[in-house]
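Section 4.2 – Deliverable D4.2 (structural model, holo form)

The reporting period included a commitment to supply a predicted holo structure for the target in complex with NAP. Inputs used:
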Amino acid sequence: MTATIIDGKAFAANVRVRVAEQVAALTGDHGIKPGLAVVLVGEDPASQVYVRSKGKMTVEVGMNSFEHKLPDDTPENVLLALIQKLNNDPQVHGILVQLPLPDHLNEGLVINSIDPAKDVDGFHISNVGLLATGQKSMVPCTPLGCLMMLREHHGSLSGLNAVVVGRSNIVGKPMAQLLLGESCTVTIAHSRTREIEAVCRNADVLVAAVGRPEMINGNWIKPGATVIDVGINRVDAPEKGDGKTRLVGDVDFSSAAKVAGAITPVPGGVGPMTIACLLANTLVACCRANGFAEPEELVV
Ligand code: NAP
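Output (structure tokens):
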């Protein structure tokens, strides 16, 4: 078997087009422009790249982008005051604090100071609780992107065995909640799971969010399963020259693609969907704040 490649890059481009159409309608019909504020504390190079690319794509879909860059030694009260200001700013519909934060800042306190209605990352404890109880919430962008691709590929997911490898608050747990919401039979595997290969081989839908390069190979996969690879790992690539690197997922793509029915590549799978879903969440937050109908295909 050779797996169908689920093209996250193309899917994300399509989501961004749909967001841009809705933004144009909101702006044209009501004079309202959705706005996303991104707060970056410190100089982490990877975070700087993410923030730049989020800002660029926000503007490309016709939204306002507000970037707030604060120094590494920003006191907690200064950051909290900025978030309060953004909470009260009617031009700001979404607020994202880029993680990780420097060590002296309390991540939980900072995230939970964001107005839950503007929490487009979906990490606020209220949104976590709403998702867990099957209520309307802001859904974390990475698992939301995975679910959109799964729904597009499968139609109904009802009754399928889903295994999520990884139990982080930002990917594994919300992913499992979303799959449960789709009536999958969900197993969450993690570093203490026994006979994890056999657990994974039972999955019709396998989501890998581990952070270990190419850990899951073709022997772990049920023939015909759909594999969503969330992992983004940079590894040495001596074949490309001295000191060169390349990105790989948590799944060994070449062996997995021989067994799976469908698979997301890395890069070009889940990654592009994450920013597209951030834009979708900002649009949804703007619609909710103004009492407009939500774009149904962009919410769960
Ligand atoms: P994380 O917080 O480090 O969590 C990793 C999870 O994997 C933990 O639950 C851990 O189990 C589990 N794990 C570690 N080693 C394992 C093993 N040998 N066997 C089974 N489970 C194991 O990572 P994360 O933030 O969820 O991210 C996971 C991956 O997704 C990373 O590669 C990250 O870069 C990527 N990511 C991608 C996007 C995107 O936009 N595509 C977004 C977010 C994250 P324990 O809980 O037992 O320790």
